[in-house]
Amino acid sequence: MRKNSGEKDGLRFRRGTSIRDRLAGLYLVVTASLMVMVFVLVYVLVEHEVYRHIDEELDEEVGEFVGSLRVTENGLLFEDQTEWMERSHITVDFYPKFVQVVVAGASPEIMKKSFNLFSDTLCYNPVLEKAAFYNSAIGGAAVRQVQVPVFQGDGSGVAAWVLVAVPLEESLFVLHDLRIALFFSLAVVLLTLFFVTRFLAGKSIDPIEQVIETAETITRENLDERIVLPSRKDELYRLSFTINSLLDRLQDAYVREKQFTSDASHELKTPLTSVMGTLEVLIRKPRDPGYYEARIGFCINELKRMSGLIEQLLLLARYDAGSFRPDIEVVDAEQIVEKVLARAEDLVRQQQLQVSIRSKKEVLVRADASMLGVMLDNIVSNAVKYSRKGGHIDVELERRGGSVFCSVTDSGTGIPPEKIERLFERFYRVDESRNSQISGTGLGLALVKKLADMQHITVGLSSVEHVGTVVTFEIPAA
Hints:
Blueprint: E1 7-8, E2 11-12, H1 19-68, E3 69-72, E4 75-78, H2 87-90, E5 98-103, E6 109-113, E7 132-138, E8 141-151, E9 158-167, H3 169-217, H4 235-282, H5 289-320, E10 329-332, H6 333-343, H7 345-350, E11 354-359, E12 364-367, H8 369-386, E13 392-400, E14 403-410, H9 444-454, E15 458-464, E16 468-476
Parallel strand pairs: 11-13
Antiparallel strand pairs: 1-2, 3-4, 5-6, 5-9, 7-8, 8-9, 10-12, 13-14, 14-16, 15-16
Helix pairs in contact: 1-3, 4-5, 5-9, 6-8, 8-9
């Protein structure tokens, strides 16, 4: 039974806040911040306009009283008494306007006030030095008032202060209602926006849920299954395509691993089976010493073959794991070729082969000397094994541009064109029945390709059946 999304490979996955909720929450926070800024700005502008309108009215009203007030030697004199008798100054039921005149001095006293103040007085601020608007209260009711100075005739100082005030109650109610309206509209808009955004975000990430569901169903038993690509080539398309590409690489690696394990077990089992069978035959009955020598020699050769196979497998595993890095340096390719041919001298003599080296000029390359030696060892070994008796092996070194080309040409049996592409696969041999008399593991060319890739060396191979094979290395020149 397939494990659910909450438990995979013994690990429990605790579901946290979904992307949908995070997107909705983030969008809500940003939108709320912007809306609060806008609403505060609206409120401040409205409040400013309300007070500006009231202050203009107060300024006009106080100007009339200051204009009718005269400072004489005998004191203050109001030239126009009609202003005090207006309805707004004697009643409180029709938008009242309160007026009060205070004589300046060490002990300020009220000279006159409008009738609608009754026993109340306006709040006089003795510390002011010029006209000012401010909020105050009359009998517990909020008012907006202005305090304006009246100067002496010679301008030597302030003779009196004229105070005019109007009720603020209606304006404050308007501002209060505006605050309530803005607050509730903000709450309603944000709440609606959260659910709408959450719904739209959910719709937007539905394809991600489909990707997750499909990915959860893919195991090693159905690695060939892939995520359906969306119709629109957006970020989700790229995500699905990338996951499919990853699955392709995983499937390829898994198939190669299975094939490698199968081939390795087969290649290791074959010499072991041969050795065991030979030894079992030897112990059944006494035999001639010559027979023992021949069979023991056969076992030794099989064990050498298995040892070589294990050594090459360990080399490949070491390079695959990335635990080894090439030591790139300037080396003489001709010297490495000469050392490789010297090691193969006995095999060359047995096959009666003619070997030649052609080098047109100095061939210094940038490579790992030991790795390059292993590569040439494998290529020359194959050339010797598969060449006809009395044939030839030609090694040519030539610098062209920024590269040195090293080619190894043999006069062997050649390789069918349709099988050349698979030569660098591990354990692949062209024809097991045809090559049954030739020892080999099928790992040599795979190792050559791996070492070449690590040193940025390009490997090329061409072959003609019954004519021979040419292997070429394109090595970065020093």
